[in-house]
# Entry
Amino acid sequence: MEQKRENWGSRIGFIMAAAGSAVGLGNIWRFPYLTGMNGGGAFIVIYLGCVVLVGLSIMIAEFAVGRRTQLAAVGAYKTYNKKWSFAGVLGVLSGFFIMGFYPVVGGWSLYYIVKSFTGLLTVPEAIGDIFGAFIGSPVQPIIWMLIYLAVNVFIVARGVSAGIELAGKILMPILYVLLLIVTIKGLTIPGAGAGLSYLFVPDWSVVTGGTFLAALGQAFFSLSLGMGCMITYGSYLNKEEKLPNNTLIVVSMDTSVALLAGVAMFPALFAFGMEPAAGPGLVFVVVPQIFAQMGGIGPLFSAFFFVALFIAALTSSVSLLEVCVAYLMDEKKMDRRVATYGTSVVMAVLCALSSLSLGAMSGVTIFGVGAFDFFDILTDKIFLAIGGMLLAIFVGWFLKKEDLKDELTNGGTLSFGLFEVWYNIIKYVIPVLIGIVATVGILSIEQTSLMIFGILIIVVLAIFSKKL
# Structure
């Protein structure tokens, strides 16, 4: 007897889980440093435009495809056209490879929570050295990574309603509260106004073509699009839910967390005279120096911030693990627990290699880069962008317009007045925009052999799509 498909227990549970999937390291780690490197307020205005134009439209499409087929990414594509199953497999591979390094960074956030109370802030100028020594250690980062991954396994093994949904309901409110606490504290520091001006007063003189590309890329990647997460989450939705309305709420929550993270950091950065364009080291090196300047309450606020970072990372990595687990359950008929445990063991090995590539195995490279950078570049620069472009092309050109309208209006019982606008954006605008981002991203890869390898994987998947 075929097992009944799991479903979300409530609308709020789905929204919290989907928002949690979207909210991740991209919001609290990547968004602030990209904002700092691209001029502040002007970047945010362009980013918000990209979220509305591209992010919202793509997410609606992913939810619609998932719910209509009641299958995860591979099965959803295969239902319509077996030749397109490679696009679903590409999404699963993206999730799998991201989980080859994402838990490593998640483990760093756990370490920083504890380290906030055990000497991290004692000597501000030494924070960079502490971080470098930690990530270069052959043992410590792996232990924290395993703890982080174990939390993911515990949640996903419990299932959709009792695991992922429950975690979202608990963790997302906590994330908002913690970010608000850190934000309010930062705004009370003398001189914080300069940071707010930097964030919300656009300086268009600093805008270049690269600013638009960075904003579009961040909007796309921040929302967990192109990797099968939202198709999978959509497949657990009942037919009564209003997809456009729910999508707007999810996108709004994701964007608000990114903006909150910016407000939590930049006023304090300017108040203490620190560099806003510090790049990827902003969160783990520069931000702790802010808390070190706060005196006795510094460790507490540092812990709050890194607990928020941990939660943001966790709710995203849970969805990435679920993409792989759902594939094995749908296509290989595996038991949820077996699929979760088996997948996580392989991910743990990949993560160990990623962690060691930053220290003990730094001399061992794959196509010219360490394992950590290999998984990051392969997914961020190649798989995700192409996966998103394929989804837009598939929905806009290969699905029946009537079927999409039927799904988004719940069989004609609801109104979606912007359907024609949405459909034309998906069909004509988004494939071009994402194609530009994908092309620029791929061409920016310095390791030509890695670029060729990534593209070759996609070509092979496409050729053998019927057998996938």
Q: What stands out?
A: DSSP finds 20 helices and no strands in the chain. The domain at 11-467 is CATH 1.10.4160 (Hydantoin permease). The chain has a mean pLDDT of 91.
